[in-house]
């Protein structure tokens, strides 16, 4: 499969995020509109667009730490030297549920092959996350980020803060190499992004 076009330099991603935060204060805020309409949908879904970032345009390594659903801790240092796929989600998010089987399959495909997966649950408490993972047979862990938003803050220069789901591929240096904004609609695209990022160290 040919490489997809590189859309946004890393330096601009933070500006995009800042713009979204600022526009969230206006009357055009989608979350506010949903609240006024009483839809209760509670999430802003991306459009599934893919952004690849050339190695020379990537920002600093993302440093993070958090608490997993089982109460243990995790940090960026635990994934040093390997590709890491980070998926932002929560249990009642419809596109998160739709992409869960694909993420399960892809995470198993790359287990022990140079890439790990880490979820970031932005809304639930641990019991809900555990029930979700059991239902979809997902074995990779998730950080429970609802209380302090530490991981969302760590990645705030790389993802729009209200886009759920979002999937990031970090290179072996911990820099964001690619982003899927919204549901992973094509598993083959995520597989290719991961393979390409792993191959950079080859």
From TrEMBL:
A single GO molecular function term of this UniProt record: oxidoreductase activity
Residue intervals of the Thioredoxin domain: 48-199
Chief location category: other
Listed Pfam families: Redoxin
Entries under InterPro entries matching the protein: Redoxin, Thioredoxin-like_sf, Thioredoxin_domain, Thioredoxin_ResA/DsbE_sf
Keywords tagged on the record: Cytochrome c-type biogenesis, Disulfide bond, Redox-active center, Signal, Signal-anchor, Transmembrane
SUPFAM superfamilies: Thioredoxin-like (SSF52833)
PROSITE patterns per UniProt: PROKAR_LIPOPROTEIN, THIOREDOXIN_2
Signal peptide segment: 1-22
GO BP of this protein: cytochrome complex assembly
Entry-linked Gene3D superfamilies: Glutaredoxin
Entry GO CC: cell envelope
Subcellular locations according to the entry: Cell envelope
UniProt protein name: Alkyl hydroperoxide reductase
């Amino acid at each position: 499969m040919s490489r997809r076009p590189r859309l946004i330099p890393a330096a601009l991603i933070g500006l995009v995020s800042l713009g979204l935060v600022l526009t969230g204060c206006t009357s055009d805020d989608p979350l506010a509109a949903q609240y006024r309409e009483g839809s209760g949908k509670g999430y802003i879904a991306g459009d599934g667009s893919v952004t690849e970032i050339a190695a020379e345009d990537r920002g600093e390594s993302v440093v993070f730490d958090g608490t997993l659903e089982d109460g243990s801790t995790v940090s960026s240092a635990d994934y040093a030297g390997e590709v890491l796929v980070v998926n932002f989600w929560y249990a009642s998010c419809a596109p998160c549920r739709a992409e869960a089987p694909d993420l399960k399959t892809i995470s198993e495909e790359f287990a022990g092959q140079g890439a790990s997966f880490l979820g970031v649950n932005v809304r639930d408490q641990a019991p809900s996350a555990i029930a979700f993972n059991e239902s979809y047979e997902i074995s990779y862990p998730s950080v429970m980020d609802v209380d302090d938003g530490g991981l969302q803050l760590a990645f705030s220069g790389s993802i729009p803060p209200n886009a759920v789901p979002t999937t990031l591929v970090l290179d072996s240096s911990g820099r964001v190499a690619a982003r899927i904004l919204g549901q992973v609609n094509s598993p083959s695209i995520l597989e290719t992004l991961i393979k390409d990022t792993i191959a950079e160290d080859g």
